[in-house]
Amino acid sequence: MADVLCFGNLQFDVLCRTVTHLPAVGSLARVEHIDLSLSGNGGNVAAALSRLGISVDLAGYRGADLIGDAFAATLGDLAVGTTTLLRHPSVGSGTSVIALAPNGERTVLFTNGANALFELDDVPDSWLENRGLVSLSSVFVLPQFTGEAIGRLFARAQAAGAHTLLNTSWAVDGQNLDSLIPALTHTDTAVLSFDEGRQLTGLLTPMAVYDAVAERTAGQVVLTLGADGCAFRELGAWRRLPSEPVDATDCTGAGDSFIAGYIAGTLRGLSLAGRARLGCLVASYAVTGPGSYPRIPALAELERLHGGKFDG
Questions:
Q1: Cα–Cα distance measured from residue 258 to residue 282, given in angstroms and rounded to the nearest whole number
Q2: CATH assignment of 4-10+40-93+113-306?
């Protein structure tokens, strides 16, 4: 049984770089590169964890097509467990077309495919047993990942002894923070970006967004700030950690890579600051090329390259 069980979407990404504007209807536009990648919040987190050396299973549906079969093979090559990744009998894979700006920021068009048909209430208890951590992403992207459904899953995971981690996405249908209260009641760590937090709360500063989420969350909250790192409260004090300075070319999966680093730090028993620092470091490797996970080194190599154990 792997230490981590990941829930979240598994997507086939078509990455178009560099895009400064969309062509007029009926016209053409040439781009410098088109890259293809295994992605999605669940796929990115699981792949990044495996690159770090953390044992992980990915749960959900893969599509009933060649892409879904290729994903299963790719994940197997990455040592991601796929016994909990079921092949849907008829619906195809989730797919995203991503336009990348010169600074690596992205605009996304997507379809969920089979991802949208996986129900959390159907997860057997055996999948949750003997896990160190259960991670769930793609909140709001997958319509069936409601606050109530996540709350029920997390309550079962906690009863089985797992740490629960919730990572939100952009609220595509205008949801607000209160819709997540049933989930946050059973969340040990909630991670969201400042942009997502402003959308969910209507508040305008990182501290205000953080406090609004923390008031509704049973456990710890971490707010990611993109190129500015992340922020959190520790022992009542407001702390901000900077990101690693890199030349970003593709920010797709940066948040997922932060999650993977944070999870690795949690399983290693690091302090909150140590977990967040490791998350920022892993994310810095993700953004330097297409796809999020291929450049992420093992934890031992990260420690060698960066001269420490990340805690403190």
A1: 6
A2: 3.40.1190.20
